[in-house]
Specification:
By secondary structure, this protein is of the alpha+beta class. The protein contains 18 helices and 18 strands. Bound molecules: serine.
Length: 593
C-alpha cells in the first residue's frame, strides 16, 4: 500500500460518508458546552449528545466529521507507540436514521475498498451480551455476510465491547470494533482482540447507541436508535502505513525532526531520549490546541487550565532532559500551528496567543523549577525510607508549582514513591483554610458572598437576553460564564467589538428589566416543554427528565441556579469591560452596584 497521509485519510473519510448522504459538520470546541462531568471533549459523539437524545440536528440525521479530542486519563502511558493526550477522531453518525446493517457494511466497504485493506487482515469483535443488553448476533451475522470468517469474529463482554457514556451519564451502547490482524502468532489459546499482545490493532469502532446510563447506573432504552462511530486518525495512519508508532506519521515527524535538530540527539537512540521526544511532541501539540481552541483557556490552577499547566510543565521537564528549554517548546508549537492551521483555522488565528502563553508559562515554571529541584534533592537525602511524605509533595506544588505527576516522576527516578493520599489530604486542608480565610475577608465587608453571586447570576441571564435584543441577533449564545462575588464574566459569539452606544443600550435594557422588579420564578419541566416555551440554554438533559427553567424578567433560560429571589435585589447593572475573548467570541465583565 502506498503511504497514506493524514489529509488524505480525513478527505477520503468525509467524502465517503458525504456520498452516502451525510452532512459534513465542523469540529466542535475541545471544551464541552454541556457536560460538567468532564473537562474536555473526549470523542466525536460528545458534542452531539443532545442530538443522540432526540433533539433535531440542523444538518439532518446523517452526520460526519473530524472531531478534535483530549483525553488525559492515560497521560502516564504517553510515550508508548499509540497513547496520545490529543487526537483527531473521524466519525459518522446516524441520529435515529440507519442502524447496524448500513453502519457495518459501510465500515467494511471503506476499509476494504477505499483503504484497500485485504479482508484476511481484518478481525472484528461484537458484544457478547449480559443482563443489560442481549448478545449482538445481528452484527456478527452482518459481518459474516460481508465476508469476515467466523473465527475472526470475537464475542466480548461489556469491558471490551461497550462504549460510553462520555461522562458519568449519557447515551451509550454495545459496539463492534474493527482490528487489523498484524499476522503475529497468537499469544496463547485465548488470544483475541481483547488482549494487548499486539496481534490485533484496533482501528475503528461502531457503537449502536440505544441506551442511556442514568445517575443510578441503570441502562434505559433511548427514544431513538443511533449509530456513533469513531476512528482515531493518528492511530489509523500509523497502523495502515506499518509504522512503529504514531510519532512516525506526518502529524508528528516534523516535530521530532525539529527536536533532533535542536538537541543534537537522535530519536532512534531509544530509551530516555526517544521517550522525552515523544512526550514533548505529544504534550506541546495538546497545549497548542487547548490554548488555540475557539474557547481556548490559559494555564491556571483550576480545571482545564490546570491540565494545560501540567502538560506544559511536564513538556518542559522532558525538554530539560534533552538539554532544551521553553524556546524549543515555542519552536515546536510554531510548527504545529503551521501544520494544522489550514485544517483548523482557529489554531492559526490564535497563533500569537499560543506562543505567548507557552512563553509565559515556561518563564513562570523556570523561576521555581531549579529551586524546587534543589529542595526535593535535599528532602530525599534526609528522609527515612523510600516514601516522600504527602505534605512535602504538597509543599512542592504550593511553593514551587510542581504538579503531582512531576514530583512522582522525579521521585521514581531515584527509587522513591510518593504518599499520594497524604498529598490529597494536605491539599484538602489547605483549601479549607483558604476558604475560611476568604470567608473572614468577606465578613463585615461584603456580607453575603453567595447571595451576591446569585444576584450576578440573575443579571447574567438578563445580559444574555439584552445582547440578543440590542444586537438584534438571535444566534448570539453563551460561550462561557464565570461569576465571582465581585463580578460576572460572560462570553458570547459575536464577531466585532460592541460600540459605546450598544454597550449603553445593553446596560439600559438590563436596568429597565431590573427596575420592573418582580419575583424570579423557577419551574421544573421536561426539555420539550422548555423548548416549546422558548427557553434558551443547553439542551443536554436526558430525554424526559425534568430541567429547571428560570424566568427572570423577559428572560427564560434552562439553568441549575441559584438565583436571587426578586429582581429588586439586583441594584444597578454596569458593564466594566468589553473585549475579545477568542476568534468570534466577545467577553463582557459587569458588576452590580
Ligand atoms: N464514541 C466511540 C469511541 O470513542 C465511537 O465514536 O470510540
Amino acid at each position: 500500500m502506498e503511504r497514506l497521509t493524514s489529509s488524505e485519510l480525513r478527505q477520503a473519510y468525509l467524502n465517503f460518508f458525504k456520498e452516502r448522504g451525510h452532512a459534513v459538520i465542523p469540529t466542535s470546541s475541545l471544551i464541552p458546552e454541556n457536560d460538567p462531568t468532564v473537562l474536555f471533549t473526549t470523542a466525536g459523539m460528545h458534542p452531539l449528545v443532545p442530538y443522540l437524545l432526540g433533539e433535531k440536528h440542523p444538518a439532518g440525521t446523517r452526520l460526519t466529521d473530524v472531531q478534535i479530542c483530549v483525553r488525559t486519563g492515560d497521560i502516564d502511558e504517553v510515550g508508548d507507540a499509540f497513547h496520545l493526550t490529543f487526537f483527531e477522531m473521524l466519525g459518522n453518525w446516524s441520529l435515529g436514521d440507519y442502524f447496524k446493517k448500513e453502519a457495518i457494511s459501510w465500515s467494511y466497504e471503506f476499509l476494504t475498498k477505499v483503504l484497500g485493506i485485504p479482508v484476511e487482515k481484518l478481525a472484528v469483535s461484537v458484544f457478547a451480551g449480559d443482563e443489560d443488553c442481549p448478545k449482538d448476533e445481528e452484527s456478527a451475522r452482518i459481518w459474516q455476510e460481508m465476508g469476515i470468517p467466523k473465527d475472526k469474529i470475537f464475542f466480548l463482554p461489556k469491558k471490551n465491547n461497550w462504549w460510553g457514556p462520555a461522562g458519568m451519564t449519557g447515551p451509550c451502547g454495545p459496539d463492534t470494533e474493527m482490528f487489523i490482524d498484524t499476522g503475529k502468532e497468537k499469544c496463547g489459546e485465548g488470544c483475541s482482540p481483547a488482549c494487548d499482545c499486539g496481534k490485533y490493532l484496533e482501528i475503528w469502532n461502531d457503537v449502536f447507541m440505544e441506551y442511556f446510563k442514568n445517575q443510578d447506573g441503570m441502562f434505559e432504552p433511548l427514544k431513538q436508535r443511533n449509530v456513533d462511530t469513531g476512528m482515531g486518525l493518528e492511530r489509523t495512519i500509523c497502523i495502515l502505513n506499518g509504522y512503529n508508532s504514531v510519532y512516525e506519521t506526518d502529524l508528528f515527524d516534523f516535530a521530532i525532526k525539529k527536536l533532533e535538530e535542536l538537541s543534537g540527539r537522535k530519536y532512534s537512540e531509544g530509551g530516555d531520549v526517544t521517550l522525552a521526544m515523544r512526550i514533548v511532541a505529544d504534550h506541546v501539540r495538546t497545549a497548542t490546541f487547548i490554548i488555540g481552541d475557539v474557547k481556548g483557556v490559559t494555564p491556571s490552577n483550576v480545571d482545564q487550565g490546570y491540565v494545560l499547566r501540567r502538560l506544559i510543565r511536564r513538556a518542559l521537564r522532558y525538554l530539560k532532559k534533552l538539554e532544551l528549554d521553553g524556546s524549543a517548546m515555542q519552536e515546536i508549537a510554531k510548527l504545529y500551528i503551521e501544520k494544522y492551521g489550514d485544517v483548523y483555522p482557529f489554531i492559526k488565528e490564535n497563533g500569537e496567543k499560543i506562543i505567548s502563553e507557552l512563553e509565559l508559562e515556561a518563564e513562570r515554571f523556570s523561576k521555581t523549577l531549579e529551586q524546587g529541584l534543589k529542595e526535593l534533592e535535599k528532602v530525599l537525602t534526609h528522609i527515612q525510607g523510600k516514601v516522600l511524605p504527602g505534605k512535602t509533595a504538597f509543599r512542592l506544588y504550593d511553593t514551587f508549582g510542581f504538579p503531582l505527576e512531576i514530583t512522582k516522576e522525579l521521585c521514581a527516578e531515584q527509587g522513591f514513591s510518593v504518599d499520594e493520599e497524604g498529598y490529597h489530604e494536605a491539599f484538602r486542608i489547605h483549601q479549607e483554610k483558604s476558604k475560611m480565610g476568604a470567608e473572614q475577608k468577606f465578613k463585615g465587608g461584603l456580607a453575603d458572598n453567595a447571595a451576591q453571586t446569585a444576584r450576578l447570576h440573575s443579571a447574567t441571564h438578563l445580559l444574555n437576553a439584552a445582547l440578543k435584543k440590542v444586537l438584534n441577533d438571535n444566534n448570539i449564545n453563551q460561550k462561557g460564564s464565570n461569576i465571582t462575588a465581585e463580578r460576572l464574566r460572560f462570553d458570547f459569539n459575536f464577531d466585532r467589538p460592541l460600540t459605546p452606544e450598544e454597550i449603553k443600550a445593553v446596560e439600559d435594557f438590563v436596568n429597565a428589566e431590573i427596575k420592573k422588579g418582580g419575583e424570579i420564578i423557577c419551574e421544573e419541566m421536561t426539555v420539550d416543554e422548555a423548548l416549546s416555551k422558548g427557553a434558551v440554554g443547553v439542551f443536554t438533559s436526558k430525554y424526559g427528565e425534568k430541567v429547571k427553567v428560570y424566568t427572570i424578567g423577559c428572560s427564560k433560560e434552562i439553568c441549575g441556579g441559584p438565583h436571587a429571589a426578586n429582581l429588586s435585589e439586583l441594584g444597578t447593572f454596569k458593564i466594566v469591560k468589553e473585549q475579545s475573548s477568542s476568534a468570534g467570541v466577545r467577553r463582557i465583565r459587569a458588576i452590580l452596584e
